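Weekly modeling sync, notes
Attendees: S.R. (lead), two postdocs, one rotation student

Agenda item 3: backlog of single-chain predictions. S.R. asked that every request posted to the team notebook include the full sequence so nobody has to chase files. The rotation student volunteered to paste the first one in as an example of the format we agreed on. Action items at the bottom.

Example entry:
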Amino acid sequence: MPGPKQDRAIRTRRTILIAAAGVFEERGYQAATISEILTTANVTKGALYFHFKSKEQLAEGVLAGQNQSLTVPDRPCKTQELVDTTMLHAYRLQTDPMVRAGTRLALDQRADGLDRTGPFHHWTTIVTDLLDKAQKQGELLPHVTPVETAEVLVGAFSGIQAMSQATTAYQNLAHTTSALLRHTLPSIVHSSVLTSLDLTPQRACAVHTETQGRTPTTPAVG
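Predicted structure, as returned to the notebook:
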């Protein structure tokens, strides 16, 4: 088991990442500064540099942090599992500053010198795996190539995220994600499977509730 010193180090690292996420979300990568992150985190420069040697490493930590807790319970229908994974991410974008900051960094074309490919590769791998499983179960139409379809879905969802952030600060993201799935899945999935899917915006909150094991709550977007 971790000792008190290790526990303290883990908490400090988390505090720094949360502060960095807030600054990156508000300022973007280029405008964010180490000094502002230090002030927000209320830690010493030595503590920050013990965990992160540069602003780039801080951004990489935030990018990696958005990928946590993406797992949904196993579904007999793998297309529904894909829907639920996507809707859960939409919910987390509305409620988790770390996820919002990681998404802003991933989409920030002005983030010179920062490797932004990680989240796209991560998401494409997840979606490809679920589509592979759905294909093996006969859920997909014959023409579907999982990796190609995964790239299209990830790209389309990235655009939906960016538009939702710009127009409503993510408040309409569950609805626009639902619309994206309703428009794209008919060209991917057998009609017999489509009729069994829950593609409603409310699915986002329901899946989050299921993963947390608590009563549903409406996301408060901040």
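Discussion: group reviewed the output briefly. The radius of gyration is 19 Å.
Action items: rotation student to repeat for the remaining queue; S.R. to check formatting next week.
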